[in-house]
Amino acid sequence: MIKDWLEKMLFSVPESGWWLIALAATAFFMIGMRALIHGMRLPDEPRSAWERQSRRRRQAFYLVTPVFAAAVLAVNLLRPGPAPELLFLYSVAFVSVPVALFPVRARVLRDYIAQQQNPGATAGPDRLTMAWITGFLCTVILVAVFALPATRYDM
Fold this sequence. Notes:
Strand content: under 5%
Order of helices and strands: HHHHHH
Radius of gyration: 19 Å
Number of strands: 0
Mean pLDDT: 80
Helix content: over 70%
Low-confidence stretches: none
Oligomer: single chain
Shape: elongated
């Protein structure tokens, strides 16, 4: 049943459609990572430091991310093999990162502020945050990788 659904729905998309999906996944990643901080209450000191660095970081982020994504895709697409599967995995990876971070963004921000206020401390993200991010991303990657062999490769 799942194999039939994957064959009919997911991997019946033509290669040009997968390129559009990959482009949309890259845009979602960029917008999603930027949106993680919005709506969060920051103390005054970290907020002013964040705003000073924000413009430079934002410009670098919006320039470097598409170039990096294009380089990763170009290197991987030079290898022989069907492109839709690679574009599927690329899209899953780029969409899953902001989705994984969103539920624990307050905890990550709290740990980041604590580290900025006390640079000598070795405190990092708490165990719940690390367990959530690791578990979610591992689950997403496993489901995506297991979806590939369950389909036909005659696209």
